[in-house]
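Margin note: ligand = adenosine-5'-diphosphate.
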Amino acid sequence: MRPTILYPLFAPLTGLPGVGPRIAPLLARAAGGEAVADLLWHLPTACIDRSARPRVADTVDGAVATLTLEVLRHEPAPRGSRSPYRVHCADSSGEIALVFFHAREDYLRAQLPEGATRLVSGKVERFRDSPQISHPDYIAPLDKADTIPAVEPLYGLTAGLTQKTVGKAMRGALERLPDLPEWNDPHLIRREGWPAWRAALETLHRPAEASACAPLAPARRRLAFDELLAAQLALSLVRAKARARPGIPLPGGGDVGARIEAALPFSLTGAQRRAVAEIHADMAQPVRMLRLLQGDVGSGKTAVALLAMARAVDSGAQAAFMAPTDLLARQHYASIAPLAEAAGVRTVLLTGRDKGAERAAALEAIASGVAGIAIGTHALFQDDVNFDRLGLAIVDEQHRFGVRQRLMLSDKGQQTDLLVMTATPIPRTLMLAAYGDMDVSRLDERPPGRKPIDTRLVALNRLPEVVEAVRRATAAGRQAYWVCPRVEDAEDVPLTSVEERGAALAQAFGADAVGVIHGRMKGPERDATMQDFLDGRTRVLVATTVIEVGVDVPNASIIIVEHAERFGLAQLHQLRGRVGRGAEASACLLLYGNLGETAEQRLTTLRDTDDGFVIAEADLKLRGAGELLGTRQSGVPEFRVADLAHHGDLLEIARADARRVLESDPDLTGARGGALRTLLYLFARDAVVATLRSG
Ligand code: ADP
Ligand code: MG
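Resulting structure:
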């Protein structure tokens, strides 16, 4: 249960000053959550320094200043004209105009009476050589000088929100800050010179100097550390809980593995062989396996998974293979089941979509132990699924699952070995953040015979040529993916939706040749579309990023990504990994609309390398960790305060600290332990705290 001291922080935003039912959702959107705590984590992106008090003659173009001005005269915009309303002001050094568009005269006259002296704060600009401030941020009489903050935090906004609204709500939130017990190691606090939690938030939201908001400022680093520590503690606890139970040794013994390996249409790469050996060695131990299999797209993780599952079966246990999407589960089933069944292993499929008799039969086969291998989505780990003797659980494309699913999974198989697989080439820092310290096997070698993918950047206005090239290629028997950005992204730029693009291409290539697939389609319809493409009935598959993970159609050798500049770099790498799987030389065309400098750099990186690690590192540098791979699918917990590009060093400290704490106080019952529980609750890790013995 969440401690009462935290209640004010988890109260809804609507209790804050100026936040009604209209503002609350906007604020929640900007802050990324609906509670007061979420707002508090919404740290300023910058600070405006208004402390400069120059004379008009000394103002600097483009700089924010606070001026003491006498109001000379109002110059309303002539009726029907587009010119702004001007208020001419001056000090002893010269004149300056205050400029207002869509102004209300009575309001301005009340604020700025002619002959009065006013403090005016805003950005000074030169217009035809004379200084002006358009829409000053603050106007105040001299005796209200204190209403103009010397340093003002600037917040990320969303449409309909203003800085003032956020600032006011934030001040309300700050009033409610409880003093929380210090959960950090006092030595660390002293060494780093960090303020206490509450003081840190106050410093950031009520900065006394502009440098207070910088990423490396002590208050900011402290809060970043808190967040990282909470994450590392949660990871360590999940891991400790998993490790606490003894595993069943799965030493093999049967011949299923050998038969499957012999039936594979290829021989394993050295990297696959090494990974399989590492996994088998872990499985043989009487300790639970917790291993991450990391391999770039197309490195052949599925075969490794299959041989791991075979080892479980060969040891008299069952194996479960969990994929993040229905589509992927079905595809894995289609490729694995024939091999497994040929070796005499009954294999069942279980997804959320399977209902009725089929589902009952699958459940029965799982419960009776008749099924050696179960493939499915997270439906595999729901309450009514009871394995007879689950020995190994494999989670594919692990980054798609959260901590909660991981917990659910370890609850299901009490002593189950766990192998998680990811194609996400995560740099070490992020790896720690996302997984803590799991054992890792890497597939650092591609299956032989892969030809490099010819990647090109093409401006969208050359679309007709691209369509023509695709037409020629498909006529020659090749297949192509055509990826469009998600429709929801269409906020400002008119983006082509998959449907529109699908219709246009159907015109060009013939309706029978084009399939359209996206996340909002019903399952069976999606399967049918996918199957048509897999079987070669359709030649072009127009898709959203639903195809980004795992989909494997070896005959598809061209991928076109529309508005490539809108995708995360590693996400593009994943998408590109859909081709280059067959004998044919493959091509990837990245169509771009508007290309800023960073976007161009990113796409160029992608063009010039196909090494997932290089790409991930580049992405981290260019965009910051939070944005890596596009936040949605990064698998890296989304930190609100910590920015790994700046706070990466803290991650190591947090990890070591979490480990040290749990060694001496595994259930967090000591004095610091109690404070750390509060920290976990503060970061909404309730599920993890619930696993602790009560303290
Ligand atoms: P990923 O690691 O992206 O999940 P997959 O397991 O889907 O990769 O494998 C990609 C493709 O490579 C598949 O078509 C698979 O059959 C093939 N493949 C896997 N291992 C080998 C190998 N050792 N030699 C040749 N082809 C392989
Ligand atoms: Mg895969």
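The first helix runs from residue 7 to 10.
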